[in-house]
């Protein structure tokens, strides 16, 4: 990994490098802690060349006033009529009325009722009832055999 010198970081801080080098240095800062330390030292060294703000609250107020005066970056463009919510609501209402008057919902309800009606089936005894019935029948046949033997 290539490490950059303090002088290169100082040039970067003072904005004395071209765009390609600037991008390369910025990307390198993400992966190298040693160069990040050099960069922070270069920033501290160049702080003395920056102007000192006498009243920072006035400066902040002026900046905020200028920001509020600026127009929004995104211009208001009118959406086409078919992309507006009112159009979608009207379209949904029209489709609902069309389906209602054409009888689609009625036929759908009739179909649902035909599915819901239980099919009349023979009542089949459960397995347990069948076993009990066969057991009682067997016991009755045993009793009849005993009665016939006497």
The H-and-E topology, N to C, reads as HHHHHHH
Number of DSSP E strands: 0
Molecular shape: elongated
- Given helix and strand content, the structural type is mainly alpha
Taking Cα atoms only, what radius of gyration do you get, to the nearest Å?
44 Å
End-to-end Cα distance: 111 Å
**Strand share of the residues?**
under 5%
Helix content bin: 55-70%
Outline the low-pLDDT stretches: none
Question: How many DSSP H or I helices?
Answer: 7
> What can be said about the biggest beta sheet?
none
**Overall mean confidence score, pLDDT:** 86
Structure description:
There is one protein chain. This protein has about 150 residues and is mostly helical. Among the domains are: about 1-50, no CATH class; about 80-115. Helix content is about 65%, strand content about 0%. It contains seven helices and no strands. Helix 1 crosses helix 3. The mean pLDDT is about 85.
């Amino acid at each position: 990994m290539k490490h950059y010198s303090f002088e290169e970081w100082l040039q970067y801080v003072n904005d004395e490098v071209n765009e390609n080098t600037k991008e390369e240095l910025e990307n390198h800062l993400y992966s190298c802690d040693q160069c990040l330390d050099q960069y922070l030292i270069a920033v501290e060294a160049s702080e003395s060349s920056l102007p000192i703000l006498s009243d920072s609250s006035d400066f902040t107020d002026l900046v905020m006033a200028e920001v509020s005066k600026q127009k929004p970056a995104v211009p208001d463009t009118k959406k086409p009529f078919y992309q507006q919510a009112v159009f979608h609501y009207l379209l949904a209402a029209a489709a609902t009325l069309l389906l209602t008057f054409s009888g689609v919902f009625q036929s759908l309800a009739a179909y649902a009722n035909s599915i819901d009606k239980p099919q009349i089936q023979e009542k089949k005894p459960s397995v347990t009832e069948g076993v009990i019935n066969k057991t009682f029948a067997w016991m009755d046949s045993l009793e009849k055999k005993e009665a016939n033997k006497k």
